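Review session, final week

We close the course with one last complete record, chosen because it touches almost every idea we covered. It is dITP/XTP pyrophosphatase, a protein from Tepidimonas aquatica with 209 residues. Go through it on your own first, then we will talk.
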Amino acid sequence: MTLAAPPRRLVLASNNPGKLAELQAMLAPLAVELVTQGSLGIPEAAEPHRTFVENALAKARHAAAASGLPALADDAGLCVAAFGGRPGVDTAHYCTQFGYPKSDANNVRALLEAMQGVQDRRAAMVSTLVALRDPDDPEPLIATGRVEGLITEAPVGEGGFGFDPVMYIPALGGTFAELPPEVKNTHSHRGRAAAAMLALLRQHWWPAP
């Protein structure tokens, strides 16, 4: 009789349902169960740093310490060429600097208003994933994904979340919000980071027998 392997559980250092759904699907080949930190009563970590990787590390350490589980954290954002790479790590709260309440719709509204008359519409979506076995893990797994596109003049599409309706990807012929989930998950910044993380997890944590 073969005993079933214990479940591979990771605490996700986020309460974002969009991130949870995307990452759970992307890590499905490893049969990993992602558990949000909020479901375990863990508050969000402070994110005082100015780079994606530093904030992802801080969030993963916080979640691992509070849960006793290995942790996975994602820090992602929009980097607009005309704004010197900003909003970057401030992406989630971008609209608040313009006096709007925090929401995806207000972030999109604030960005389009800020880009009125701006000819250079180039932008990149960047995702950095960090996985830790415990909060003192000296060898975190770090994976980064990046996808380049153009900021549209108005929102297009009903899918996705965040800035997906205004992030047009020329190579795919549409915004992220227009793409079927399986196409977006394959080609998005988070999809590319997750694919790289999947390979790292297989190599370092859960090698195939």
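Two points worth writing down before the exam:
The CA atoms of residues 11 and 47 lie 18 Å apart.
DSSP finds five helices and seven strands in the chain.
Good luck, everyone.
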